[in-house]
């Protein structure tokens, strides 16, 4: 089952724990009728992590760190290790992940296969830029080591390659030095979308991390109001080991009715006012800054049994203002807003992967409770705006993008397809490539 | 803290070793597969262990057990905790048909494990402190048709460890048998549908194992509710028990 919980499928799953088990499993899985796909902690929202009627290798049992050299800053680990475990290793030693997405419960291999980005994209680019080497097992029985010096294209295809170029067995990434586990965070309310763009431009120069939450149900003059958050690693403070305590968890599905236009709108109003009241500078540990949702295990169940859709787009800088305005208008008019609407400006740094999602421009991430046809209709309206603006959608968060829209957004897709391992596939890939 | 882990490549042992590593412990890992042992050792060093030593040994070989254990202690420069975590589930049907298969299962899960537990107990008694934690199984609490050869070995091991705990009573060292219910590990790979409340993760069991080394016992279930489930199963009258397919 995907993290969005809309898409579910049965799989034949192998759960290896040791590197020596992988070659045989890749051989067997690739020969299965439905081909093979590696999965990790299953945080992909859509169908890029599903391979129904095929074989799946769950890599979360290969979760060991192999080596870390503080001089070269290179950390090598098995692909199934979580970013959470990597942080526990790095932070007390005065290092941090060069790039981190909004949850630490993803695997390193998954982070590379989706070429994830973070709030520091304008500085650091995607995680793929920090991958020094990786080990790939191909279904023809070969094991290849790849780095940025690879001139066959296989490395560029594997970064952001959605696990389709073979099994990523291990990864070496370059860590980033930090002086403290604390963050200096500044929150600035902005009253409308027009105020976001100058704020982002001004902040990207002086802050490592920038992101904005927006109230996507606000309409009229308040359209696109939100809270802009900018931060940097503190120059002083402890590198203390983190508290292991997990917050609460949501052990069951909330009824679908729990999230409706009234409750979400009320939540957004309160959240915005609270943020405005508490605006200003604060210091906080890195976890609540980077991973607010990780405190609620199983938060995806809040959306009820029918699950949720994530929708993350990026549009080029020239079109950013108009396209984002148009998207927010469409959402506001539909009343299907969510409280996890996030807006960020991506930097100019090119992404290293052929299928990497980030490109320069503005990215908008949204989630919608699955209400069937009306939700799909809204996303189709958004598709039209993104496509018109020359933008694209994020495969890790997608379970429905039409093949034509995918191909338009990723003009490299055919070059990528030449590197796809014939023994590997996924629902997503079959949907967009056939 | 100095900890010897016998059967370090078992999933529960590895999860427990990570807890010890997080505390900055010094570890000696014993197992028979060199690459796997090296992979775990490197990982534990990065996860905070002050020191990780390894010893290659097939623990099912119970020749010179006492000398070997002295060697383990010397390699680590002392011991505080000993975790005995190796075992094989085996094929119940094959064991019923073939005495050699049954004997091999009993030998690994009971005979050799008992030998290591006894030499560890000797060492702890001599130094007057420390904990011996042994992995048993809820399967040892009542013989059931699905796994009674394995269960018999674990029952024997539980009785042996209870006896060691009794021997230690009113003195410094401690001995604890930890009895997990079904755990999602390579040992149970192939079981249909390892989901739901009955199935625990190795991390859940590891937390119980780690705590057992400090307090509680001599019989600890993992998770705790297996104590009451197994009590109920033990108390079931035979005519009812015989009708259950458990």
Q: Rg of chain A to the nearest angstrom?
A: 21 Å
Number of helices of chain B: 9
Report the uncertain regions of chain A. none
End-to-end Cα distance of chain A: 23 Å
Number of domains of chain B: 1
Class inferred from helices and paired strands of chain B: alpha/beta
CATH class of chain B: Alpha Beta
List the SSEs and their pairings.
The complex is a heterodimer of chains A (434) and B (246).
Chain A: E1 12-14, H1 22-31, E2 36-39, E3 55-58, E4 65-69, E5 74-78, H2 83-90, E6 95-96, H3 108-113, H4 121-124, E7 131-137, E8 143-147, H5 154-158, E9 167-174, E10 176-177, E11 182-190, H6 193-206, E12 209-214, E13 226-233, H7 261-277, E14 280-285, H8 286-290, E15 308-315, H9 317-334, E16 342-346, E17 361-369, H10 373-388, E18 392-393, H11 403-409, H12 413-417, H13 427-433
Chain B: E1 2-6, H1 11-22, E2 26-31, H2 34-46, E3 51-56, H3 65-76, E4 81-84, H4 92-97, H5 99-127, E5 131-135, H6 148-168, E6 174-180, H7 202-212, E7 219-222, H8 226-235, H9 238-243
Parallel strand pairs in B: 1-2, 1-4, 2-3, 4-5, 5-6, 6-7
Helix pairs in contact in B: 1-7, 3-5, 5-6
């Amino acid at each position: 089952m995907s993290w969005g919980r809309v898409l579910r499928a049965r799989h034949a799953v192998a759960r290896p724990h040791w590197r020596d088990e992988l070659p045989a499993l890749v051989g067997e899985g690739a020969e299965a009728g439905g081909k093979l796909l590696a999965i990790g902690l299953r945080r992909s929202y859509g169908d890029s992590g599903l391979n129904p009627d095929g074989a799946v290798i769950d890599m979360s049992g290969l979760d060991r760190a192999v080596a870390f050299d503080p001089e070269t800053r290179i950390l090598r680990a098995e692909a199934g290790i979580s970013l959470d475990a990597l942080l526990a290793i790095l932070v007390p030693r005065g290092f941090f992940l060069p790039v981190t997405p909004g949850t630490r419960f993803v695997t390193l291999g998954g982070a590379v296969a989706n070429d994830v980005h973070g709030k520091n994209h304008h500085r650091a680019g995607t995680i793929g830029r920090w991958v020094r080497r990786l080990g790939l097992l191909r279904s023809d029985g070969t094991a290849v080591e790849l780095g940025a010096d690879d001139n066959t294209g296989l490395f560029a295809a594997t970064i952001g390659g959605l696990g389709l170029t073979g099994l990523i067995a291990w990864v070496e990434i370059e860590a980033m030095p930090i002086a403290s586990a604390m963050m200096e965070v500044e929150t600035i309310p902005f009253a409308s979308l027009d105020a976001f763009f100058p704020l982002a431009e001004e902040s990207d120069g002086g802050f490592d991390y920038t992101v904005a939450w927006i109230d996507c149900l606000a309409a009229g003059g308040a359209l696109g109001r939100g809270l802009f958050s900018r931060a940097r690693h503190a120059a002083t403070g402890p590198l203390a080991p983190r508290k292991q305590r997990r917050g609460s968890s949501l052990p069951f599905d909330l009824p679908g009715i729990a999230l409706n236009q009234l409750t979400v709108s009320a939540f957004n109003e309160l959240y915005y006012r609270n943020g405005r009241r508490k605006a200003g500078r604060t210091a906080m540990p890195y976890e609540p800054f980077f991973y607010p949702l990780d405190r609620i295990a199983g938060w995806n169940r809040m959306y009820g049994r029918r699950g949720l859709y994530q929708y993350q787009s990026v549009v080029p800088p020239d079109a950013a203002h108009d396209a984002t305005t148009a998207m927010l208008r469409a959402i506001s008019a539909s009343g299907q807003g969510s409280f996890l609407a996030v807006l960020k400006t991506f930097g100019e740094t090119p992404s290293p992967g052929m299928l990497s999602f980030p490109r320069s421009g503005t990215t908008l991430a949204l989630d919608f409770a699955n209400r069937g046809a009306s939700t799909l209709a809204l996303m189709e309206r958004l598709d039209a705006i993104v496509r018109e603006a020359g933008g694209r959608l994020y495969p890790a968060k997608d379970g429905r993008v039409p093949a034509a829209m995918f191909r338009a957004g990723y003009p490299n897709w055919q070059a990528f397809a030449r590197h796809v391992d014939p023994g590997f596939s996924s629902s997503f890939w079959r949907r967009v490539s056939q | 803290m100095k900890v010897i882990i016998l059967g370090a490549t078992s999933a529960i042992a590895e999860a427990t070793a990570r807890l010890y590593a997080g505390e900055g412990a010094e570890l000696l890992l014993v197992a028979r597969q060199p690459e796997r042992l090296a992979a775990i050792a490197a990982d534990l060093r990065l996860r905070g262990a002050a020191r990780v030593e390894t010893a290659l040994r097939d623990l099912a070989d119970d020749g010179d057990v006492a000398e070997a254990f002295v060697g383990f202690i010397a390699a680590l420069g002392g011991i505080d905790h000993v975790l005995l975590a190796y075992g094989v589930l085996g094929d119940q049907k094959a064991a019923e048909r073939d005495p050699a298969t049954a004997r091999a299962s009993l030998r690994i899960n009971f005979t050799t494990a008992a030998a290591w537990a006894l030499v560890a107990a000797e060492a702890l008694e001599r130094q007057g402190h420390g904990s011996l934690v042994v992995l048993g199984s809820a399967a040892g609490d009542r013989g059931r048709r699905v796994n009674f050869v394995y269960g018999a070995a674990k029952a024997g091991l539980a009785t042996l460890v209870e006896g060691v705990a009794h021997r230690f009573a009113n003195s410094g060292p401690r001995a604890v048998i930890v009895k997990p219910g079904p755990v999602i590990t390579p040992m149970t790979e192939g079981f249909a549908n390892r989901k739901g409340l009955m199935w625990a993760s190795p991390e859940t069991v590891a937390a119980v194992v780690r705590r057992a080394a400090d307090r509680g016992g001599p019989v600890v279930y993992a998770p705790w509710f297996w104590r009451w489930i197994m009590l109920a199963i033990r108390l079931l009258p035979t005519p009812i028990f015989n009708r259950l397919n458990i």
